[in-house]
Amino acid sequence: MDKNTPAPDLPSATAAATNSATNSALPVTKFPLSDAVQEALAVAKRGVDELLIESEFAQKLARSEASGVPLRIKLGLDPTAPDLHLGHTVVLNKMRQLQNLGHQVIFLIGDFTSMIGDPSGRNATRPPLTREQIEQNAQTYFKQASLVLDPEKTEIRYNSEWCDQLGARGMIQLASRYTVARMMERDDFAKRFKNGTPISVHEFLYPLMQGYDSVALKSDLELGGTDQKFNLLVGRELQKDWGQEPQCILTMPLLEGLDGVDKMSKSKNNYIGITEPANTMFAKVMSISDTMMWRYYELLSWRSLDEVANLKQAVANGANPRDAKVAIAQEIVERFHSRQAAEDALADFVNRSKGGIPDDIAEIGVTGAPLGVAQLLKQTGLCASTSEAMRMIDQGGVRIDGTVISDKALKAEASTFVLQVGKRKFARITLTA
């Protein structure tokens, strides 16, 4: 489909009703499920929350094998922030696995839907982004996604191609395809309505527009997080209205962050950014719990299920779980940096664990000597506030040139020294009068 794809013609109400009745399932022809198809199905199902409808998707795979025509697999992301973290890559990993099987993956940037604001999983209206914010964020999205996907085999699209063409008349006709009652089946809408939390009318448009994307792209499979299930199902229903074979949907679980409790999020500061320095990325992976480690293997690793099972069994038999954690940390660092960076990150981590000082630390100049250590920590940005600095000193988490600082009243004299907070924050300070 070329750039500036014409918007699909909207069906009449009569045609829509007929199409819904006649296109609710795959064609009657049944294809045998070969060993290759069974293997592809197993790859698709690894780590997923739901695959709907599995029997339909198996037939799509079998038909693709028989015809040689790859499936069209869609993932839409709104550029609501300029950077991606490992939580975002869970679904990108699945896209890459399907891409490796020979299918056509479509990376859809929701530059139009971003102006509406996705209400999924929210208890308040999401502020729509401006066109300038969207364009700025979109510039880095595909570049970062290409660290996971094969960019040469990825179709990149923007949904403004067809959504802009709808106009007011088309939008009204599209809105007639869904009732308010059906929209209120969404869990987040239902909860907000029950609690008296405002729901803006434009928010009802979001799942419709996302579903319309599937019509425009003739999607065979759409991927998303578990919080996207309603929107993905809308796409399936709209395709029936347009006389298309309905897409299957695959939802991936939301990856927990470093705390092992909440989903990975920058706002919760429990994330691992895919553009972070290799040493930082490695150390963050090493900080997750031994239990959470297997979750990361399941959702982030490209190792086979048999390899992961063998690693897990080895740990159960007494092997050091640290070795397995090192392996997943190195795999992740290598993916986003290089093999050498992964080796160097391991060496840096070992050095730090022995109390050593990493090579790549910031050089910061500070004036005002003699300067209280709490104030120094705040000025250098190693602590957000003097109260946080005081807490870190009380906990024994502050060192100067490797020596633990316990005196909160200590004043640092003019000199050059290494200031350390916790296990991962270092800076070489040059303090002058």
Tags for this entry?
single chain; 433 residues; alpha/beta; Rossmann fold; Tyrosyl-Transfer RNA Synthetase; Structural Genomics Hypothetical 15.5 Kd Protein In mrcA-pckA Intergenic Region, Chain A; six-stranded mixed β-sheet; five-stranded mixed β-sheet
For the record, give the distance between the C-alpha atoms at the N and C termini, rounded to a whole number: 66 Å
Mean pLDDT: 85
Supply the number of structural domains.
3
Number of helices: 18
Q: What's the CATH superfamily of the largest domain, by name?
A: HUPs
- Rg, nearest Å: 26 Å
Helix/strand-derived category reads alpha/beta
Protein name: Tyrosine--tRNA ligase
Biased composition (Low complexity): 12-21
Organism: Pseudoduganella lurida
GO molecular function: ATP binding; RNA binding; tyrosine-tRNA ligase activity
Description:
- It is a single chain.
- This protein is α/β, with parallel strands linked by helices and 433 residues long.
- It has 3 domains: 13-252, HUPs (Rossmann fold, 3-Layer(aba) Sandwich), CATH 3.40.50; 278-353, Tyrosyl-Transfer RNA Synthetase (Orthogonal Bundle), CATH 1.10.240.10; 362-432, Structural Genomics Hypothetical 15.5 Kd Protein In mrcA-pckA Intergenic Region, Chain A (Roll).
- It has 18 helices and 13 strands.
- The protein has helices at 13-22, 35-45, 54-67, 86-100, 131-145, 160-163, 167-175, 180-183, 187-194, 205-217, 229-241, 278-286, 290-300, 305-316, 321-336, 339-353, 373-379, 386-394, and strands spanning 50-52, 72-77, 104-109, 154-158, 221-225, 248-252, 362-367, 371-372, 398-400, 403-404, 411-412, 415-421, 425-432.
- The strands form 3 sheets. The protein has a 6-stranded mixed β-sheet, with helices on both faces.
- Helix 11 links the parallel strand 5 and strand 6.
- Residues 371-430 form the RNA-binding S4 domain.
- It holds the Pfam family S4.
